[in-house]
Please model this.
Amino acid sequence: MKSAMSKVLLALLLCQFQGFALAQMATPAAAGARTILRISGLVANANAKANPNITSEGVLALDEAAIDALPVHSFTTTTPWFKEKTTFSGPLLADLLDAVGIKGTLLTMRALNDYKVQVPVSDAYQYHPLLARKINNRPISVREKGPLFLIYPFDSAPELNTELFFARSIWQIKSIQVD
Ligand SMILES: Nc1nc2c(c(=O)[nH]1)N[C@H]1C(S)=C(S)[C@@H](COP(=O)(O)O)O[C@H]1N2
Ligand SMILES: [Mo]
Model:
C-alpha cells in the first residue's frame, strides 16, 4: 500500500519534471535563433502541435537557448585531443534525452563533417557523458570541435579509455536519430 502510493507519487513527479523540461524546450525560438541540433526518430512528440520546435517532418529542432536551458555539469579528464587534463561543461546527454522524451535504445549521431557514429542510449545513464558547450570554461567554436562535443569522463572507468569510446566522442554534432 505504502509502496504503491510512493510509486504514484514518483510517477507524478516524473511527469512534472518532463512537463517542465518540455515546457522549457517549447519556448519559442528567439527571432533569428539558429537550430544547432536536430533530433529525429523515436522522440515523444505527443506535444508536437504545442511545441514550436517540432518541424513539419516531426523533427525536434533545438537552438542554443534550448540546449543551454538544461542544467550544466562539468568534469575534468585526460583525452586523446588535448595535451593537458581538460575541463568540459555542458548538459548531460541523459538530461537531453529525458527532456525530449526519447523512446529508443540506439542513437545515430551525425557531425557537420558527416562523421557518423552509433551510441547506445544506455551509455548516457551508465557513463554520464556530456554534450560539451565549453572547454576550460570557454565556449567552443565550430573550428574547435563545437558547438556540441559528446565527451565521456574517460578517467572515471578503465573501459572508457579505449578506441570504442574515443570513436563515440563525436564533435560538431548536428543531429541525433533515435531508433
Ligand atoms: N566530428 C567528428 N568526430 C569524430 C571523428 C571525426 O572524424 N569527426 N573521429 C572519431 C574517431 S574514429 C576517433 S577514434 C576519435 C579520435 O579521432 P582523431 O584521432 O581523428 O582525433 O574521434 C571521433 N570523433
Ligand atoms: Mo577511430
Q: What stands out?
A: Residues 163, 167 surround molybdenum atom (ligand 2) (CB under 6 Å). DSSP finds five helices and eleven strands in the chain. Confidence is low (pLDDT under 50) at residues 12-20.
